[in-house]
Amino acid sequence: MRISITARHVKVPEELRARARDLLSRLARIASRPHDGQVIFSENHGVPAAEVRLHTVRGKILVGMSDGADHRSALDKAVARVRRQLDKPAGKTGRARARAVQRASE
Question: Which of 40, 89, 95, 101 is close enough to 51 for a disulfide, judged by CB 3.0 to 4.6 Å?
Fold first, then answer.
Protein backbone atom coordinates (compact mmCIF):
# COMPACT_ATOMS: atom_id res chain seq x y z
CA MET A 1 0.00 0.00 0.00
CA ARG A 2 1.23 3.46 -0.88
CA ILE A 3 1.33 5.89 2.07
CA SER A 4 1.80 9.63 1.69
CA ILE A 5 2.23 12.09 4.54
CA THR A 6 1.70 15.80 3.95
CA ALA A 7 2.27 18.76 6.26
CA ARG A 8 0.44 21.92 5.24
CA HIS A 9 2.19 25.01 6.62
CA VAL A 10 3.45 23.13 9.69
CA LYS A 11 6.59 21.21 10.56
CA VAL A 12 6.02 17.62 11.57
CA PRO A 13 8.81 15.71 13.36
CA GLU A 14 10.08 12.47 11.87
CA GLU A 15 8.83 10.50 14.91
CA LEU A 16 5.27 11.63 14.20
CA ARG A 17 5.64 10.73 10.52
CA ALA A 18 6.80 7.24 11.55
CA ARG A 19 3.83 6.91 13.91
CA ALA A 20 1.46 7.94 11.12
CA ARG A 21 2.97 5.29 8.80
CA ASP A 22 2.63 2.67 11.54
CA LEU A 23 -1.01 3.53 12.30
CA LEU A 24 -1.93 3.58 8.61
CA SER A 25 -0.29 0.20 8.04
CA ARG A 26 -2.34 -1.19 10.95
CA LEU A 27 -5.53 0.13 9.33
CA ALA A 28 -4.44 -1.47 6.06
CA ARG A 29 -4.43 -4.89 7.72
CA ILE A 30 -8.10 -4.45 8.65
CA ALA A 31 -9.35 -2.84 5.43
CA SER A 32 -10.46 -4.76 2.36
CA ARG A 33 -7.68 -4.48 -0.25
CA PRO A 34 -6.42 -0.95 0.50
CA HIS A 35 -4.25 0.62 -2.18
CA ASP A 36 -3.56 4.16 -0.98
CA GLY A 37 -3.39 6.00 2.33
CA GLN A 38 -2.87 9.66 3.11
CA VAL A 39 -2.22 11.60 6.29
CA ILE A 40 -2.48 15.39 6.13
CA PHE A 41 -1.28 17.52 9.04
CA SER A 42 -2.41 21.15 9.21
CA GLU A 43 -3.46 23.90 11.58
CA ASN A 44 -6.95 25.42 11.65
CA HIS A 45 -6.69 28.87 13.24
CA GLY A 46 -3.74 27.73 15.34
CA VAL A 47 -5.32 24.43 16.39
CA PRO A 48 -3.40 21.32 15.25
CA ALA A 49 -5.45 19.10 12.94
CA ALA A 50 -5.02 15.77 11.17
CA GLU A 51 -6.89 14.13 8.31
CA VAL A 52 -6.58 10.44 7.43
CA ARG A 53 -7.79 9.12 4.08
CA LEU A 54 -7.82 5.42 3.22
CA HIS A 55 -8.67 4.38 -0.34
CA THR A 56 -10.00 0.84 -0.54
CA VAL A 57 -11.53 -1.44 -3.14
CA ARG A 58 -14.10 -0.14 -5.67
CA GLY A 59 -13.30 3.50 -5.06
CA LYS A 60 -14.44 3.57 -1.45
CA ILE A 61 -12.70 6.33 0.50
CA LEU A 62 -12.72 6.39 4.30
CA VAL A 63 -11.97 9.80 5.82
CA GLY A 64 -11.30 10.76 9.42
CA MET A 65 -10.64 14.36 10.42
CA SER A 66 -9.88 15.67 13.89
CA ASP A 67 -8.42 18.55 15.90
CA GLY A 68 -6.43 18.16 19.07
CA ALA A 69 -4.10 19.70 21.58
CA ASP A 70 -1.19 18.57 19.41
CA HIS A 71 -0.74 16.75 16.11
CA ARG A 72 -0.24 13.38 17.77
CA SER A 73 -3.60 13.45 19.58
CA ALA A 74 -5.31 14.77 16.44
CA LEU A 75 -3.79 11.86 14.47
CA ASP A 76 -4.96 9.32 17.04
CA LYS A 77 -8.53 10.67 16.96
CA ALA A 78 -8.62 10.70 13.14
CA VAL A 79 -7.35 7.11 12.97
CA ALA A 80 -10.01 6.07 15.50
CA ARG A 81 -12.69 7.59 13.27
CA VAL A 82 -11.47 5.65 10.23
CA ARG A 83 -11.25 2.50 12.34
CA ARG A 84 -14.88 3.01 13.42
CA GLN A 85 -15.89 3.23 9.75
CA LEU A 86 -14.04 -0.01 9.02
CA ASP A 87 -15.79 -1.78 11.90
CA LYS A 88 -19.27 -0.91 10.58
CA PRO A 89 -20.94 -3.87 8.88
CA ALA A 90 -21.10 -3.64 5.10
CA GLY A 91 -24.36 -3.97 3.27
CA LYS A 92 -27.74 -2.58 4.18
CA THR A 93 -27.83 0.65 6.15
CA GLY A 94 -30.42 2.59 8.09
CA ARG A 95 -34.04 1.74 7.38
CA ALA A 96 -33.26 -1.18 5.10
CA ARG A 97 -31.28 -2.87 7.88
CA ALA A 98 -34.07 -2.21 10.41
CA ARG A 99 -36.65 -3.74 8.05
CA ALA A 100 -34.43 -6.76 7.43
CA VAL A 101 -33.99 -7.33 11.17
CA GLN A 102 -37.74 -6.94 11.74
CA ARG A 103 -38.57 -9.47 8.98
CA ALA A 104 -36.03 -11.93 10.38
CA SER A 105 -37.59 -11.73 13.84
CA GLU A 106 -41.14 -12.41 12.55
Answer: 40
> 33 in the Ramachandran plot: left (φ > 0), alpha (ψ -120 to 50) or beta?
left
**Average pLDDT over all residues of the chain:** 89
Question: Could you tell me which residues come within 8 angstroms of residue 51 by beta carbon, excluding any fewer than 6 positions away?
Answer: 38, 39, 40, 42, 63, 64, 65, 66, 78
Virtual torsion, Cα 93, 97, 99, 104, nearest 10 deg: 170
CATH number at residue 8: 3.30.160.100
Q: Tell me what pLDDT residue 58 has.
A: 84
Mean pLDDT lowest among 39-48, 58-67, 89-98: 89-98
Work out the burial of residue 82: count CB atoms within 10 Å of its CB; fewer than 13 is exposed, 13-18 middle, 19 or more buried: buried
Range of the domain at 21: 2-105
pLDDT greater at residue 58 or residue 50: 50
List all residues 6 or more positions away from 84 whose beta carbon is below 8 Å from its beta carbon: none
